[in-house]
Amino acid sequence: MTIGRNKAWGAVVAGLVLVLMACAPAQAREKVGTVVKTQGEVSAAFEGKTRRLAPGAELFKGDTLLTGGKDSRVQARLEDQSDLTLGGNGAMTLDDLVVGPPGTTREVMSLLNGAFLLVASPTPGAVIRTPVATLGIRGTQFWGGPLDGALDVFLLEGKVEVRNADGSVLLDAPGQGTVLKGSGAPGGVQVWGPDKVARATATVSFAP
After folding, report:
1. Phi-psi region of 131 (alpha: psi -120 to 50; beta: other; left: phi over 0)
2. Is 12 inside a domain boundary?
3. What's the CATH number where 153 sits?
4. How many Å separate Cα 83 from the centre of its chain?
5. Which residues span the domain enclosing 50?
6. Residue 170 phi/psi, 5° resolution?
7. What share of the chain is helix, strand, coil (3-state, %, to 5)?
8. Separation between Cα atoms, residue 72 and residue 68, nearest integer Å
9. Which segments of the protein form a coiled coil according to its record (predicted)?
10. Overall average pLDDT of the 19-23 stretch
11. Does residue 105 have a pLDDT over 70?
């Protein structure tokens, strides 16, 4: 009889554990930024669920920022004080952001589609992954997106290394840019003319 009662009690305990697990709130995700400005249709997706974004909305680790049309835009202030703007028809995942003492901050994002402008914090450690290259950022203000190739990168301030399995280039002076055609190493460093710069900045500019 004692064995039977023990088995019954064990079943009750197991059932209670399952109920408590089901009722427990999901683990809170780490906040990585806040929406500052939006234009058009803007949302964030995570694990198959999408929510609309407006100024003041919080962004969390693992969110994918989405801009729903060519004229849509979103600007966000990240927790390390970097400013990110995503242009129309864009998708960028906020993979990771760890803010620590100088030299230890880590920021990782993945560009899936569209163009962006990043004004990075002075602390180095940011990385942006794209389908054709990885961008290593050093206290930088720069633009990236498809313009004349699969990915174009233009430096406004600081330094950015553009690298993939086939090679790398370093942009280290304002006005420099490079183009990746989709396969092979990044193209050579070139100084962009005003017309190309205007085309690039238009992709992330908000309407007046």
Report:
1. alpha
2. no
3. 2.60.120.1440
4. 11
5. 29-202
6. -115, 120
7. 15, 45, 40
8. 6
9. none
10. 41
11. no
